[in-house]
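TA notes. Do not distribute before section.
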Amino acid sequence: MAELLTAQRGTADILPPAVQTWQTIEDRARAWFRRYDVDEIRTPIFEATELFARGLGEQTDVVSKEMYTFEDRGGRSITLRPEGTAGVVRAFLQAKLATPGAFHRFWYGGPMFRYERPQAGRMRQFHQIGLECLGSDDPRVDAEAIALAVDLFADLGVQGLEVQLNSLGCPTCRPRFREALVAYEEAHRSAYCGTCQPRIDLNPLRVLDCKTPACQVLNDGAPSVQDHLCEGCRGHQEQVLACLEAVGIAVRLVSRLVRGLDYYTRTVFEIVAGSGLGSQNTVCAGGRYDGLVEECGGPPTPAFGWAFGLERLALLLGNRAQEPGLELFIGHLGPAAATRAFALATGVRRAGDHRVAFATGDRKLKKLFEMADRAGARFVLVIGEDEVLSGKARLRDRATREEREIALEVSDLVEVLRAASQSVTVLS
């Protein structure tokens, strides 16, 4: 017997019923993007390595340690996308959409790839849904994007989330903060962990994001970016907070909040879960990246975006976001009954958004009911030769344990399913 092949470490098969949770998240996200007038964009899974090195920053952990990079047969350096923003910006520029006064909003979804230690909700192949807003520096763009994410998660029934926000400043005020931060970190270099010490030279803001307890204590005494914001950045932040407050979204200002990519400026935010995800509790994150488009070869273009991971959100939701299960199971006893059962199942499916299973093969009555039980069907209809002749059969409701006689007509079955969908009854 040949050796059994398994999925690669850091990847996972998404099997039923977990797929239902994913589909619900995707469907609700698509609906909320439509409400906010956001168009979908689809970009390639791999890009030129230079796009990510230039856009994300060569000193970031993503570029220096985590990317899946290879040389193709043409000798070009290619990278599987580790995030979605850079590809959207490249597409935005390649399509010549960066025109004066134009404002575009795109959403995307799909797999991303980073070589890191796999853990719950954090895989080497992971899936994201993201939003990118290109062409406006209006603080209301920041607030609207954050509100969209909050509305989506509320619709999914996610509870206990907190919106955390900070500003990283701009080219005017950020250098002053960086200078003060580096001076503080240099003075305490020996006390920082082995990961943070090189970051002091390469990416000092990332030191503030360290999860090591000793480093967190040190960072409590570090300079705050909030004390170094220029008038423009402070006014921008105040307007973002005012807009979110106006729509009932509570925000906690966290001066230590930074992001792991170099392109962020001004507003950065995270939506974090109070429980259910352990230390990796960020559900959604993003911010403003006003310099990235120019860094990728385009004109100065302000922008804002965020993304959330489907694995992490699905882990948080569990089974709560799954759509209703099997509504109707139709079994049959005999050839003539099989044809009638097949016609009924097809007719009910065509008549509306109903989930219907048709039993294949020849089985005994007891086996048919066992199949319906395993499938979790709400209603069970078994048709024999006598039922075909009479045009009626017994419909069993597994939720209420009641049976009723029903005509073997598509319209009659659809009426029962529609009525049942108006109320929620839990199967025991």
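Switch to the second chain here.
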Amino acid sequence: MKSAPASNASLVRPELGTDEQLVDLVLGGDVDSFAVLMRRHNQRLYRVVRGFVGDASTAEDILQQTYVLAYRGLAQFERRAKFSTWLTRIAVREALRTRRRAARVEEVHERANLVRVIELTRSPEDHAAIKEWTRALERAIDELPEEYRTVLVLRRVEQMDTDETAALLGLSPENVRVRLHRARALLKEVLFQRVGDSLDEVYEFGGKRCDGIVARVLAELSL
């Protein structure tokens, strides 16, 4: 990328700047600012992608590809939407493309889901710590039909509003509400009540995994 003229953006501490200020710094040749952007959005994008593909390894591959595409297309970011929304759209597009390439056909396991959730919540290990409840919930979410799982992750786990979820998935707001209701019915609200505040730990993506994504993207881009 070509160096940009000095501007107010160059005076911004990357870790404190807005996404848009960091984009300006990256376009000006500041690679470290792109690393800051990746770390800032890793958790959200991983959760969104994992909600689509239901597999941790595949989700990380898609996340890496998302950042590569975003970096290479950063000059096309027109700022009509938030940077986070622009980035999430790339991730969703890549997730859908991966599913089509793999031609995976997902089966609906509504009854099996309920049986498995009940078995997990009654096991001695699940009663040992709240962490086990979170993992039980995570596994149950993975087995939901895609149309319910993606809405559930965006709305309940990632806390996006109905309109933003509808825009990302190409649905009407009413359709989003219906799918969320059905997803909650499948999981049984009692499971959410038992897990409580630990929902923010679902699809945890930090530490070495976060560092690994940043390192692999920078290596692929030869930065």
